[in-house]
Amino acid sequence: MACTKFLTFNNGLKMPILGIGTWQASDEEIETAIDAALEAGYRHIDTAPVYENEKAIGRVLKRWLDAGKLKREDLFIVTKLPPPTNRPHEVEPTIKKSLADLQLEYVDLYLIHTPFTVCINEDGSFKFKADGTIEIDPTTNHVATWAAMEKLIEKGLAKSIGVSNFSKEQVQRILNNCKIRPANNQVEHHVYLQQRDLIDYCKAEKVTVTAYSPLGSKGIAKLNASVGLVRELPDLLDIEEVKQISAGHGKTPAQVLLRWIIDCGVAAIPKSTNPNRLKQNLDIFDFELSPEEVAKLCALDQNLRICDFSFFRGVEKHPEFTFKNKFNN
Ligand SMILES: NC(=O)c1ccc[n+]([C@@H]2O[C@H](COP(=O)([O-])OP(=O)(O)OC[C@H]3O[C@@H](n4cnc5c(N)ncnc54)[C@H](OP(=O)(O)O)[C@@H]3O)[C@@H](O)[C@H]2O)c1
Protein backbone atom coordinates (compact mmCIF):
# COMPACT_ATOMS: atom_id res chain seq x y z
CA MET A 1 0.00 0.00 0.00
CA ALA A 2 1.23 3.50 -0.71
CA CYS A 3 -0.08 7.01 -0.46
CA THR A 4 -1.14 7.70 -4.03
CA LYS A 5 -2.35 11.26 -3.49
CA PHE A 6 -0.17 14.35 -3.17
CA LEU A 7 -0.57 18.06 -2.50
CA THR A 8 1.42 20.29 -4.84
CA PHE A 9 3.17 23.27 -3.25
CA ASN A 10 3.36 26.75 -4.79
CA ASN A 11 7.00 25.90 -5.69
CA GLY A 12 5.92 22.81 -7.68
CA LEU A 13 7.17 20.24 -5.13
CA LYS A 14 4.77 17.53 -3.95
CA MET A 15 3.94 16.23 -0.47
CA PRO A 16 2.18 12.87 0.12
CA ILE A 17 -1.29 13.79 1.43
CA LEU A 18 -1.00 11.25 4.26
CA GLY A 19 1.93 11.06 6.64
CA ILE A 20 2.77 9.66 10.05
CA GLY A 21 2.74 11.94 13.11
CA THR A 22 5.35 11.20 15.77
CA TRP A 23 4.44 13.29 18.84
CA GLN A 24 4.37 11.56 22.22
CA ALA A 25 6.19 8.37 21.37
CA SER A 26 9.30 7.09 23.13
CA ASP A 27 12.49 6.35 21.14
CA GLU A 28 11.77 2.65 21.28
CA GLU A 29 8.14 3.07 20.19
CA ILE A 30 9.00 5.43 17.38
CA GLU A 31 11.83 3.27 15.98
CA THR A 32 9.42 0.33 15.70
CA ALA A 33 6.65 2.57 14.37
CA ILE A 34 8.79 4.23 11.67
CA ASP A 35 10.06 0.84 10.53
CA ALA A 36 6.47 -0.44 10.35
CA ALA A 37 5.29 2.75 8.65
CA LEU A 38 7.95 2.56 5.95
CA GLU A 39 7.13 -1.14 5.41
CA ALA A 40 3.44 -0.22 5.13
CA GLY A 41 4.18 2.40 2.47
CA TYR A 42 4.34 5.71 4.38
CA ARG A 43 6.88 8.15 2.95
CA HIS A 44 5.83 11.37 4.73
CA ILE A 45 7.07 11.68 8.32
CA ASP A 46 6.23 14.62 10.59
CA THR A 47 8.51 15.35 13.53
CA ALA A 48 9.88 18.26 15.59
CA PRO A 49 12.73 18.77 18.08
CA VAL A 50 10.16 19.18 20.88
CA TYR A 51 8.97 15.60 20.25
CA GLU A 52 12.48 14.50 21.29
CA ASN A 53 12.61 11.69 18.75
CA GLU A 54 14.55 13.06 15.77
CA LYS A 55 17.61 10.91 16.66
CA ALA A 56 15.53 7.74 16.82
CA ILE A 57 13.82 8.56 13.52
CA GLY A 58 17.22 9.34 12.00
CA ARG A 59 18.54 5.90 13.00
CA VAL A 60 15.69 4.17 11.14
CA LEU A 61 16.02 6.38 8.06
CA LYS A 62 19.76 5.71 7.92
CA ARG A 63 19.18 1.96 8.08
CA TRP A 64 16.69 2.11 5.20
CA LEU A 65 18.83 4.45 3.10
CA ASP A 66 22.09 2.56 3.74
CA ALA A 67 20.43 -0.74 2.86
CA GLY A 68 19.26 0.77 -0.45
CA LYS A 69 15.62 -0.03 0.46
CA LEU A 70 14.75 3.62 -0.18
CA LYS A 71 16.30 6.61 -1.91
CA ARG A 72 16.34 9.98 -0.15
CA GLU A 73 14.08 11.44 -2.83
CA ASP A 74 11.42 8.82 -2.00
CA LEU A 75 10.98 10.35 1.45
CA PHE A 76 9.18 13.50 2.58
CA ILE A 77 10.53 14.60 5.95
CA VAL A 78 9.02 17.49 7.90
CA THR A 79 10.50 19.07 11.02
CA LYS A 80 10.06 22.37 12.79
CA LEU A 81 11.72 25.43 14.33
CA PRO A 82 10.75 24.99 17.99
CA PRO A 83 8.98 27.67 20.08
CA PRO A 84 12.13 28.43 22.17
CA THR A 85 14.28 29.20 19.11
CA ASN A 86 11.70 31.22 17.22
CA ARG A 87 14.21 33.99 16.51
CA PRO A 88 16.03 34.85 13.25
CA HIS A 89 19.59 34.12 14.44
CA GLU A 90 18.54 30.70 15.78
CA VAL A 91 16.97 29.39 12.57
CA GLU A 92 20.09 28.03 10.87
CA PRO A 93 21.76 26.46 13.93
CA THR A 94 18.46 24.88 14.91
CA ILE A 95 17.80 23.23 11.55
CA LYS A 96 21.42 22.05 11.45
CA LYS A 97 20.92 20.31 14.80
CA SER A 98 17.74 18.63 13.47
CA LEU A 99 19.56 17.54 10.31
CA ALA A 100 22.42 16.09 12.35
CA ASP A 101 19.93 14.18 14.52
CA LEU A 102 17.92 12.98 11.52
CA GLN A 103 21.19 12.12 9.70
CA LEU A 104 19.95 13.98 6.63
CA GLU A 105 21.42 16.65 4.35
CA TYR A 106 18.08 18.47 3.97
CA VAL A 107 14.46 18.30 5.08
CA ASP A 108 11.61 18.45 2.60
CA LEU A 109 9.62 20.94 4.66
CA TYR A 110 10.75 23.13 7.58
CA LEU A 111 7.99 24.86 9.57
CA ILE A 112 7.98 27.62 12.20
CA HIS A 113 6.34 25.45 14.88
CA THR A 114 4.34 28.17 16.65
CA PRO A 115 3.71 31.89 16.12
CA PHE A 116 4.86 32.56 19.70
CA THR A 117 8.24 32.25 21.43
CA VAL A 118 8.78 30.75 24.88
CA CYS A 119 11.94 30.66 27.00
CA ILE A 120 14.09 27.75 28.14
CA ASN A 121 16.57 27.17 30.95
CA GLU A 122 20.26 26.54 30.29
CA ASP A 123 19.63 22.80 30.41
CA GLY A 124 17.07 23.13 27.59
CA SER A 125 13.99 22.57 29.76
CA PHE A 126 11.05 24.96 29.43
CA LYS A 127 11.35 27.95 31.77
CA PHE A 128 8.42 28.08 34.15
CA LYS A 129 8.05 30.91 36.67
CA ALA A 130 7.35 30.35 40.38
CA ASP A 131 3.60 30.75 39.73
CA GLY A 132 3.71 27.88 37.22
CA THR A 133 3.34 30.04 34.11
CA ILE A 134 5.80 29.79 31.26
CA GLU A 135 8.22 32.61 30.53
CA ILE A 136 7.45 34.09 27.13
CA ASP A 137 9.61 36.17 24.82
CA PRO A 138 7.18 38.77 23.46
CA THR A 139 9.67 40.14 20.89
CA THR A 140 8.77 37.52 18.23
CA ASN A 141 9.15 39.01 14.77
CA HIS A 142 7.67 36.74 12.10
CA VAL A 143 8.95 38.78 9.17
CA ALA A 144 12.55 38.68 10.42
CA THR A 145 12.35 34.96 11.25
CA TRP A 146 10.83 34.26 7.84
CA ALA A 147 13.77 36.03 6.12
CA ALA A 148 16.08 33.61 7.97
CA MET A 149 13.87 30.68 6.90
CA GLU A 150 14.21 31.78 3.25
CA LYS A 151 18.00 31.50 3.53
CA LEU A 152 17.60 27.78 4.32
CA ILE A 153 16.30 27.24 0.80
CA GLU A 154 19.29 29.07 -0.72
CA LYS A 155 21.64 26.96 1.43
CA GLY A 156 19.91 23.71 0.45
CA LEU A 157 19.00 22.82 4.04
CA ALA A 158 15.25 22.74 3.31
CA LYS A 159 13.41 22.14 0.04
CA SER A 160 10.30 24.04 1.17
CA ILE A 161 9.42 26.25 4.15
CA GLY A 162 6.18 26.95 5.95
CA VAL A 163 4.47 27.75 9.22
CA SER A 164 2.36 26.01 11.83
CA ASN A 165 -0.42 27.26 14.09
CA PHE A 166 -0.50 30.55 12.16
CA SER A 167 -3.72 32.55 11.82
CA LYS A 168 -4.90 34.13 8.58
CA GLU A 169 -3.52 37.49 9.64
CA GLN A 170 -0.14 35.99 10.56
CA VAL A 171 0.12 34.19 7.19
CA GLN A 172 -0.91 37.39 5.41
CA ARG A 173 1.82 39.38 7.19
CA ILE A 174 4.41 36.93 5.86
CA LEU A 175 2.90 37.02 2.37
CA ASN A 176 3.13 40.81 2.42
CA ASN A 177 6.82 40.71 3.28
CA CYS A 178 8.33 37.58 1.73
CA LYS A 179 10.52 36.61 -1.19
CA ILE A 180 9.49 32.95 -0.85
CA ARG A 181 5.83 32.22 -0.07
CA PRO A 182 5.06 29.72 2.71
CA ALA A 183 4.32 26.32 1.16
CA ASN A 184 2.27 24.99 4.05
CA ASN A 185 0.44 25.88 7.27
CA GLN A 186 0.15 22.94 9.69
CA VAL A 187 -2.84 23.44 11.98
CA GLU A 188 -5.24 21.44 14.12
CA HIS A 189 -8.06 20.25 11.87
CA HIS A 190 -10.71 17.58 12.44
CA VAL A 191 -14.49 17.30 12.40
CA TYR A 192 -14.84 19.21 15.70
CA LEU A 193 -12.40 22.02 14.68
CA GLN A 194 -12.85 22.57 10.97
CA GLN A 195 -11.31 26.10 10.67
CA ARG A 196 -13.04 26.53 7.31
CA ASP A 197 -12.21 30.24 7.10
CA LEU A 198 -8.49 29.67 7.63
CA ILE A 199 -8.37 26.70 5.27
CA ASP A 200 -10.25 28.50 2.48
CA TYR A 201 -7.96 31.49 2.89
CA CYS A 202 -4.79 29.34 2.76
CA LYS A 203 -6.04 27.49 -0.32
CA ALA A 204 -6.85 30.78 -2.07
CA GLU A 205 -3.30 31.96 -1.32
CA LYS A 206 -1.82 28.65 -2.52
CA VAL A 207 -0.56 27.76 0.94
CA THR A 208 -1.31 24.05 1.46
CA VAL A 209 -2.70 22.92 4.80
CA THR A 210 -1.75 19.92 6.91
CA ALA A 211 -4.18 18.70 9.58
CA TYR A 212 -2.57 17.80 12.87
CA SER A 213 -4.40 15.85 15.58
CA PRO A 214 -6.75 14.55 12.85
CA LEU A 215 -8.06 11.81 15.17
CA GLY A 216 -8.47 14.06 18.21
CA SER A 217 -5.07 13.57 19.86
CA LYS A 218 -6.00 11.16 22.65
CA GLY A 219 -2.43 11.29 23.91
CA ILE A 220 -2.75 14.94 24.89
CA ALA A 221 -4.77 13.98 27.98
CA LYS A 222 -1.59 12.61 29.61
CA LEU A 223 0.34 15.80 28.87
CA ASN A 224 -2.51 17.97 30.19
CA ALA A 225 -2.67 15.89 33.36
CA SER A 226 1.10 16.26 33.88
CA VAL A 227 0.61 20.04 34.30
CA GLY A 228 -2.57 19.68 36.36
CA LEU A 229 -4.92 20.60 33.52
CA VAL A 230 -8.15 18.66 33.90
CA ARG A 231 -10.27 18.77 30.77
CA GLU A 232 -13.02 16.59 29.31
CA LEU A 233 -11.86 15.96 25.75
CA PRO A 234 -14.11 14.41 23.13
CA ASP A 235 -13.51 11.00 21.56
CA LEU A 236 -13.81 11.65 17.83
CA LEU A 237 -13.78 7.92 17.13
CA ASP A 238 -16.97 7.54 19.17
CA ILE A 239 -19.13 10.15 17.41
CA GLU A 240 -22.43 8.49 16.36
CA GLU A 241 -22.47 9.98 12.84
CA VAL A 242 -18.85 8.91 12.24
CA LYS A 243 -19.56 5.38 13.48
CA GLN A 244 -22.64 5.08 11.24
CA ILE A 245 -20.77 6.27 8.15
CA SER A 246 -17.84 3.96 8.82
CA ALA A 247 -20.13 0.93 9.29
CA GLY A 248 -21.74 1.69 5.91
CA HIS A 249 -18.35 1.47 4.18
CA GLY A 250 -16.91 -1.40 6.18
CA LYS A 251 -14.24 1.03 7.40
CA THR A 252 -13.23 2.22 10.87
CA PRO A 253 -14.15 5.63 12.36
CA ALA A 254 -10.45 6.65 12.05
CA GLN A 255 -10.49 5.87 8.33
CA VAL A 256 -13.63 7.96 7.81
CA LEU A 257 -12.17 10.91 9.76
CA LEU A 258 -8.98 10.77 7.67
CA ARG A 259 -10.77 10.33 4.34
CA TRP A 260 -12.95 13.38 5.11
CA ILE A 261 -9.79 15.46 5.69
CA ILE A 262 -8.00 14.47 2.51
CA ASP A 263 -11.22 14.95 0.50
CA CYS A 264 -11.14 18.56 1.77
CA GLY A 265 -7.78 18.87 -0.03
CA VAL A 266 -5.88 18.91 3.27
CA ALA A 267 -2.99 16.60 4.24
CA ALA A 268 -3.29 14.51 7.42
CA ILE A 269 -0.59 13.20 9.76
CA PRO A 270 -2.22 10.74 12.19
CA LYS A 271 0.13 9.44 14.85
CA SER A 272 0.20 5.78 15.70
CA THR A 273 2.84 3.50 17.11
CA ASN A 274 0.67 0.45 16.53
CA PRO A 275 1.52 -1.38 13.26
CA ASN A 276 -2.10 -2.43 12.60
CA ARG A 277 -3.48 1.05 13.18
CA LEU A 278 -0.67 2.51 11.05
CA LYS A 279 -1.74 0.28 8.15
CA GLN A 280 -5.39 1.07 8.76
CA ASN A 281 -4.73 4.83 8.63
CA LEU A 282 -3.06 4.49 5.22
CA ASP A 283 -5.78 2.25 3.84
CA ILE A 284 -8.19 5.05 2.99
CA PHE A 285 -7.84 5.36 -0.77
CA ASP A 286 -10.27 2.60 -1.79
CA PHE A 287 -13.61 4.14 -0.76
CA GLU A 288 -15.46 7.39 -1.25
CA LEU A 289 -17.71 9.44 0.99
CA SER A 290 -21.00 10.50 -0.59
CA PRO A 291 -21.92 14.22 -0.67
CA GLU A 292 -24.55 13.49 2.02
CA GLU A 293 -21.93 11.86 4.25
CA VAL A 294 -19.54 14.78 3.72
CA ALA A 295 -22.36 17.20 4.63
CA LYS A 296 -23.07 15.21 7.83
CA LEU A 297 -19.39 15.37 8.83
CA CYS A 298 -19.14 19.08 8.00
CA ALA A 299 -22.17 19.72 10.24
CA LEU A 300 -20.26 18.35 13.28
CA ASP A 301 -18.01 21.44 13.67
CA GLN A 302 -17.89 22.76 17.25
CA ASN A 303 -14.85 25.08 17.15
CA LEU A 304 -13.39 22.74 19.76
CA ARG A 305 -9.63 23.10 19.88
CA ILE A 306 -7.92 20.19 21.60
CA CYS A 307 -4.28 21.30 21.29
CA ASP A 308 -4.47 24.92 22.44
CA PHE A 309 -1.04 24.90 24.12
CA SER A 310 -2.55 25.54 27.55
CA PHE A 311 -0.02 22.99 28.84
CA PHE A 312 2.22 26.11 28.50
CA ARG A 313 0.24 28.00 31.16
CA GLY A 314 0.38 31.74 30.52
CA VAL A 315 1.33 31.46 26.82
CA GLU A 316 -1.92 33.25 25.94
CA LYS A 317 -0.23 36.46 27.14
CA HIS A 318 2.13 36.31 24.15
CA PRO A 319 1.20 39.03 21.61
CA GLU A 320 1.21 36.47 18.77
CA PHE A 321 -1.02 33.95 20.58
CA THR A 322 -4.34 33.95 18.69
CA PHE A 323 -6.23 30.79 19.63
CA LYS A 324 -9.78 31.42 20.76
CA ASN A 325 -12.22 28.58 21.38
CA LYS A 326 -14.56 26.99 23.88
CA PHE A 327 -11.86 26.46 26.46
CA ASN A 328 -10.09 29.81 26.45
CA ASN A 329 -12.56 32.37 25.10
N1 LIG B 1 2.33 21.58 14.65
C1 LIG B 1 1.86 21.35 15.85
O1 LIG B 1 1.82 22.22 16.72
C2 LIG B 1 1.35 19.97 16.18
C3 LIG B 1 0.54 19.77 17.31
C4 LIG B 1 0.06 18.49 17.55
C5 LIG B 1 0.39 17.45 16.71
N2 LIG B 1 1.22 17.66 15.63
C6 LIG B 1 1.59 16.55 14.72
O2 LIG B 1 0.40 15.87 14.31
C7 LIG B 1 0.52 14.48 14.65
C8 LIG B 1 -0.84 13.87 14.94
O3 LIG B 1 -1.50 14.51 16.01
P1 LIG B 1 -1.63 13.89 17.46
O4 LIG B 1 -0.50 12.99 17.75
O5 LIG B 1 -1.86 15.06 18.37
O6 LIG B 1 -3.00 13.08 17.47
P2 LIG B 1 -3.83 12.12 16.49
O7 LIG B 1 -3.00 11.66 15.36
O8 LIG B 1 -5.11 12.82 16.23
O9 LIG B 1 -4.16 10.92 17.46
C9 LIG B 1 -3.20 10.04 17.90
C10 LIG B 1 -3.88 9.08 18.85
O10 LIG B 1 -4.83 8.27 18.14
C11 LIG B 1 -4.51 6.89 18.29
N3 LIG B 1 -4.78 6.26 16.99
C12 LIG B 1 -4.07 6.38 15.85
N4 LIG B 1 -4.65 5.70 14.85
C13 LIG B 1 -5.76 5.13 15.37
C14 LIG B 1 -6.77 4.30 14.82
N5 LIG B 1 -6.76 3.92 13.54
N6 LIG B 1 -7.77 3.88 15.65
C15 LIG B 1 -7.79 4.25 16.95
N7 LIG B 1 -6.87 5.05 17.51
C16 LIG B 1 -5.85 5.48 16.73
C17 LIG B 1 -3.06 6.83 18.69
O11 LIG B 1 -2.79 5.72 19.49
P3 LIG B 1 -1.74 4.57 19.05
O12 LIG B 1 -0.42 5.22 18.81
O13 LIG B 1 -1.76 3.65 20.21
O14 LIG B 1 -2.31 3.95 17.79
C18 LIG B 1 -2.91 8.13 19.50
O15 LIG B 1 -3.36 7.94 20.84
C19 LIG B 1 1.46 14.51 15.86
O16 LIG B 1 1.95 13.23 16.17
C20 LIG B 1 2.50 15.49 15.37
O17 LIG B 1 3.37 14.88 14.44
C21 LIG B 1 1.68 18.91 15.34
Could you please describe the fold and organization of this structure?
The chain has about 325 residues and is of the alpha/beta class. The protein has a single domain (about 15-315), classed as NADP-dependent oxidoreductase domain (TIM Barrel, Alpha-Beta Barrel), CATH 3.20.20.100. About 35% of the residues lie in helices and about 15% in strands. The chain contains eleven helices and ten strands. It has helices at about 25-40, 55-65, 90-100, 140-155, 170-175, 195-205, 220-225, 240-250, 255-265, 275-280, 290-300; strands spanning about 5-10, 15, 20, 45, 75-80, 105-110, 160-165, 185-190, 210, 265-270. Strands 3-4-5-6-7-8-9-10 form an eight-stranded parallel beta sheet. Strands 1-2 form a two-stranded antiparallel sheet. α1 (about 25-40) packs across α10 (about 275-280) and α8 (about 240-250) crosses α9. The protein is globular and about 55 Å long. The N and C termini lie far apart (about 45 Å). The model has no long low-confidence stretch (mean pLDDT about 95). The site of NADP nicotinamide-adenine-dinucleotide phosphate (NAP) has 29 residues, from α10. NADP nicotinamide-adenine-dinucleotide phosphate binds near residues 22, 46, 113, 164 and 274.
